[in-house]
Specification:
With about 325 residues, the chain is α+β, with helices and mostly antiparallel strands. It has 11 helices and 15 strands. The protein is about 35% helix and about 20% strand. The longest helix has 25 residues, at about 215-235. The mean pLDDT is about 95.
Length: about 325
């Protein structure tokens, strides 16, 4: 890449190649565009923005039908007027990634081993990945790709994250936390993006573990991801039965357990699992084990609103 710093690069971009409407019915196209409008609105609500290629309107959506025609030609567009107007208005508010892009962005890419397609924005994401800067590509819901997908260009091959719903971005942010060799401070800054169902206690620090941040970043991310995605649902489905919750978490690569009956019966030992949060004491009686004999993440039962408090990072707490 050119001399521009990583800070100049966007995080979320629009994959213009996903606007290929060939082979889809009018109903499918209208539904996909409406859902894409919902995605842009959702991202605005989250204070996140997508960057677009400045020549986006010249992208061919169908034979002889450019994106400009799709949005502004009432006679040729399959979209109703209100759908066209909503998308056109949203796109005009988005920045262009190529205002600060390098000159050597690949224009043709191979997605998941397919034939080459013209997609400069995906090429931009590939070049950014070479700088250890993750870029996720928003797609029209008609696209066949979603999640982490292998992309090849003349500049190299890497995995790029594609998404059609804002909720799918949690997985993207988690990959950046591990792949980009970030600092502990930056890890906690991205916490809300990666683990929206987890409340972070202010006292959390990787220094409380036995080991350094670089070595622990990946296993901690795996454990927090499983707790975020599975714990509350598993607890409800299992009607609070710990062994079934433990089984579900284990299938997602995490060994987690509730404290034993003996330990729970000891006020002195359980007080070690108590943390102050929002003016009250919260008991973190569950813990995830990063290793069999050291490094624990202690967390609570669901709080009001269904979120879980991650209360303690510790090497090990005494048990009864």
């Amino acid at each position: 890449m050119r001399d521009a710093t990583v800070a100049d690069l966007h995080r979320l971009v629009l994959d213009e190649s996903s606007f290929d409407l060939r082979g889809h019915s009018r109903e499918q196209v209208v539904d996909a565009v409406e859902k894409f409008g919902d995605l842009l609105a959702d991202l605005r609500h989250r204070d996140q923005s997508i960057a677009v290629w400045s020549a986006l309107y010249e992208v061919e959506c169908d034979t002889g039908l450019l994106l400009h025609d799709l949005l502004f030609d009432a006679e040729r567009s399959p979209l109703p007027r209100d759908v066209r107007a909503r998308l056109a208005s949203a796109l005009t508010k988005l920045p262009a990634w190529d205002d600060t892009a390098p000159a050597d962005v690949p224009l043709d890419v191979e997605i998941d081993g397919g034939d080459p397609v013209f997609a400069p924005t995906i090429g931009y994401a590939v070049l950014a990945a070479a700088r250890r800067h993750g870029v996720a590509c928003a797609v029209l819901p008609l696209a066949r790709v979603c999640g982490q997908v292998k992309v090849a260009t003349a500049a190299g091959t890497t995995e790029i994250h594609f998404f059609a719903e804002a909720a799918e971005l949690t997985a993207f942010w988690r990959t950046t936390m591990v792949a980009e060799r970030i600092t502990e401070t930056e890890y906690f800054r991205r916490w809300a993006l990666a683990f929206p169902s987890l409340v972070r206690h202010d006292s959390l620090s990787f220094s409380a573990f036995d080991g350094d941040f670089a070595a622990l970043c990946a296993p901690v991310t795996t454990a927090l991801s499983a707790i975020n995605d599975q714990f509350v649902t598993a607890l409800a489905d299992a009607k609070g039965q710990p062994h079934e919750v433990e089984r579900v978490l284990r299938t997602h690569g995490v060994v987690a357990t509730r404290e034993s009956v003996k330990t729970r019966g000891s006020p002195r030992h359980m007080a070690m699992r108590d943390v102050e949060h929002a003016g009250r004491i919260v008991r973190c009686e569950w813990h995830a084990k990063l290793e069999p004999h050291r490094n624990r993440i202690h967390f609570s039962l669901p709080l009001e609103g269904g979120r879980v408090l991650i209360g303690l990072f510790v090497e090990h707490l005494a048990t009864a």
